[in-house]
Design a protein that fits this description.
576 residues, eight-stranded mixed sheet, seven-stranded mixed sheet, 21 helices
Amino acid sequence: MQIRIGEGASDEEAHVIGSALAEHTGEAIEVYVGDGDAPATTVEPPASTEPSDQSAESPASDTAGPTERERLLREEIADIEQGGPEKYKNRLDEQGKLFVRDRLDLWFDDGFTFEDGRFANFDAEDRLPADGLLTGAAEFEGRTLHAMANDFTVKAGSMAGKGVEKFLRMQQRALKTGRPVLYLMDSSGGRIDQQTGFFANREGIGKYYYNHSMLSGRVPQICVLYGPCIAGAAYTPVFADFTVMVEGMSAMAIASPRMVEMVTGEEIDLQELGGAQVHAAESGSADLVAEDEEHARELVAQLITYLPDNADESPPRADSRPPARSPAGIDSVVPERPNRGYDMHDLIERVADQGSVLELREQYGPEIITAFCRIDGRPVGVVANQPAQRAGAIFPDAAGKAAEFIWTCDAYNIPLLYLCDTPGFMAGSGVEKEGILEQGKKMIYATSSATVPKQCVVVRKAYGAGIYAMSGPAYDPESTLALPSGEIAIMGPEAAINAVYRNRLDDIEDEEERAAREAELREEYREDIDAHRMASEVVIDDIVPPSELRDELATRFAFYEGIEKSLPDKKHGTIL
């Protein structure tokens, strides 16, 4: 490298300048003074000197390593990951549940892929590791997702400013990534003594539920409860698409037992107020109930196999497996008499791939079964009447449950299978007060609005508006099939004969003659509503031999996969 310095510089000055540059650049330096034609000095770089701006290929010194600064940082991280006071950790053992970071290891093998906001509230006067709420990314059963978990050892998992900020960021990032969100909840609610700045603010805790609403139907949201979720914390489980509670451990309620007693005078413990059985059987807010922490993970691991990452994708396929029970037995499962009960699970097990049936809200509105399964490896949402419960009549709870399940399946592109065997919607003053018309309306609306492929099978009786709710011919199914036991009618034979012919029959004085005439009328009526008459009138598409039902459904779901259906151009409906 050649450089030129000012006139009048001495040879010594030229040498000093050249030496400095040679050491810095690692190159030989020729120094010219003034207008001289020859260099005043030439300096070679020192043999041991390397360029100060080492290239990316230059190896770092073998002796380099972490400094004291990094060691201190690692100590700080380790302290944060210890969570709250040891006495609160010991209480977790007494309650039979895991410390939050052990829980993350259970779910994700090595915990989060990365964690956000680990240093939240690091400089607080009180020790508040991660502000009691952990958020990050994780890999679960081969799927990447967003996840959060409350640390119950830090102020009972309560939520305050920094933790709220982390929660909101996670939700907002999920909208961008289009990945599922897993909420591992164990929170006593908002931190009352620190509510200023996070309760009603635009970006406060109230924004949780706005974000839940924006995420709803966009990405699957799954919530698992590990402890008491009270007040504001209880809304996350009910906003989620799927909620799992742990028996004897989980609870959620709009207010704590102490607050309930203050407001109403009622003395009640937390499990009676909002435990797993309350929400599984009575409120319908719990989709699944786990026996313990490990079982909760197993249930979610099965659940997520039916769900896509987001609403733009199709559900994941699996290898086809034969049913647990032979389809050849389907016809023997369905009784000849329309008013005789049987368990619809026996039929589902003969249609679905072995081990693939996952029923949701089993104890709530049990006269309708809502379940995921696979048919020939393809995820399907099953809506089936259950004749073993209340003769399969549709009550308000069951109608509401079915509507929400249909709506969720449609949001995530999961095709629907309706197995119809119902006398219709239940009648009476009790169900009217419980809103049978309102809940029935929602079920019919959800069925009408669903744009995923739908198959309706008339297994046996399809009476009254039951055939409407179960996606009968008027509700745009891709197919309406029937088994030979199928019947479609305004009402069953007994009710019809009583409604139309009661006076005429009463006029027949001879009891034997009256009974014979009644049987004759009933048989004539049944011929008129029989599946063969419906097929003859092209009301239904086909009568399927029962032993071929699984193959028939697999073929039809495969054929209609990816079908495009549209709704009228509007903002949204007003029913749900």
